[in-house]
Structures are given as structure tokens and as C-alpha cells.
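1st attempt posting a full record on here, be nice pls
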Amino acid sequence: MSLSVFAAFWAVSILFVITPGADWAYAISAGLKHRVVLPAVAGLLSGHLLATLIVTAGVGTLVARHPLALSALTVAGAGYLLWLGANLLARPAAPHADEGQASDSWARWAFKGLCVSGLNPKVFLLFLALLPLFTDTAAPWPVPLQMIALGLVHTISCGVVYLLVGFGSQVVLRARPAAARWVCRLSGLIMIVIALVLLIGQWRV
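the predicted structure (as C-alpha cells):
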């Protein structure tokens, strides 16, 4: 795979990563607990790696060989993004940290992070819709290996962003709640733009 393919995938992937969602809310919750950001983010990243492996195991390749199935998944993903983006624009409330969690166990925070990201439909929609688009059956790398490499690019981006979100959450939410609302509005707009781009791409096929 060429660097241009990695760069193109990263450009699309990072838009999803910087969009607040369940992962952001969990990283913020961990950030307000101070000492559990690292295990919480490690759990979130484990969920993304798990999703990558599930898609690589056969689902992604199967979808890549059936253009109609890929188109259906892309339209479904675009519809989900439109709905989520519209809700963020209409109700731009910042995520609230869970102050009621009493345990600071690193293992517990890591496991919950795995569940939050591993069960997040946005993660699977991203991988199912995008990973096959950036693979090439004629490339020297096998398709599953290409998907794993792209999944790692996405996971690294997630790690950087979620650590920033986690460690910066106390300042954003407690000192400047209005800024958090603007972040939500911007994220909603970005999601809508991505959805429209995906839909336009399908109409041109």
C-alpha cells in the first residue's frame, strides 16, 4: 500500500475520531477522575482493534466483493450520521462525566472502555463502509493485512485524540462549558457534511 492511500484513509478517519460520541463521553468521564485516563483509553483502543479484527476476519472482504452490499452499508452509515449530526446541532449539550462511579480500578475502567468502543455502531459502520474502499486486491499486501494496517492507523489517531480529550476534559467542561457546546455543534456539522459526501458519492456511481 502506498503512503497516499494511508493519507487518504487518515483524512477520512480523523473526521470520525474528532466527532464527539460515546468514546468521547467515556474519555471525559475518565479525565474527571484524573488517574484512570490511561486505562480507560487503552480499553477504548482495544475495542477499535477488536472491530478491526472482526471485519478483517471475513466480513470486510465479503462486503468488498459485493458492491451492492457496500452501497447499502454506506447509505445506512450516511443516514446514521445525518441523524446523529442533526441531534448534535439541535441539542448541543456537552457530555456529562459520571460522578457516581466509585471504583478507580484500572482493570474495570479498561474493561468498560472495551465495551464502550467495541459495542459502538459508529466504529463498525466506519470499518465496514471504509476499509474495503481503501484496499486493493492487486496490491502486494493481502487484503486482510491491508485492513489491519488501516485499522491501526485509525486506532493510533483515536489514541492521540482520546488522550487529549481525557486529560483536557476538566478544563473544557468545568471552566468553559460554553466551549463544549460549540464543539458539539461543530461536530454535528462535520457529521452532516460527511454523510452528504457519502451519499453524493453513491449517486455518482
